[in-house]
Amino acid sequence: ASGSNVSVNYAVTGTATGGGTDYTLADGTLTILAGDLTGNISIAGIVDDLIDELDETVIVTLSTPVNATLGTNTVHTYTILDNDAAPTVAFNATASSGLESVSSAALAVSLSAASGSNVSVNYAVTGTATGGGTDYTLADGTLTILAGDLTGNISIAGIVDDLIDELDETVVVTLSSPTNATLGTNTVHTYTILDNDDAPTVAFNGTTSSGLESVSSAALAVSLSAASGSNVSVNYAVTGTATGGGTDYTLADGTLTILAGDLTGNISIAGIVDDLIDELDETVVVTLSSPTNATLGTNTVHTYTI
Question: Model-level pTM?
Fold first, then answer.
């Protein structure tokens, strides 16, 4: 004990933030009254926040005593232990969509609570759409949500507004392996690129053609107005004055299929018979109907004259 008041200055540092953010304590002076042996420096207003963060320190250093000298323990480190669980990270929703004329889409990812550390989460991209600039641009990667923020976006860029009639296509993004967070409920988001192209028309290139009966076969060209992302099929029926079944030619009613991405196909009149009979010119009339993944164009009937 001292017969005089003893005072000692103290300075406050550390990783925690004072001024009421994490605690309240400023640099100051402690006075121990004459006759007393002890006094307290009080860290007040420690904040019980909801932020998952590293443990933080309040470091108090003594200096410049009056009526005393400094002893051994001139520095005290008080550690504020965090009591918050790591936040969850997940998509805001599991599905969204947009026309292919919309060039980009932002998929929102959120934390259940702000974090005192950067949160990162990996994502993988799959789906029926083709990346790499064919239908869109987005590769596997990592999203980082900065400390203190609640949301981030994974952006699907360069969505291609093509001219191909096709099925709606999906971009499926799956979250995994977060850092400073755990996975929440919505770990998979399916973005659907909605096709905005009309089905193509299907029709003969021309309405008539002809050939000598010495020409053994003839190909009747059928075309689409634009390529399709799906196979296009169209039925055809065969009539006319010529006799099929091998008498004058060989061609029965059937279905023509034009494969996805192609523009043309042929209906072939085969086995045209070069007989020795003087006769009138004869016709093979082919009529298109009931297309699938297309509509009928103008030239639905073709007359081939033998």
Answer: 0.81
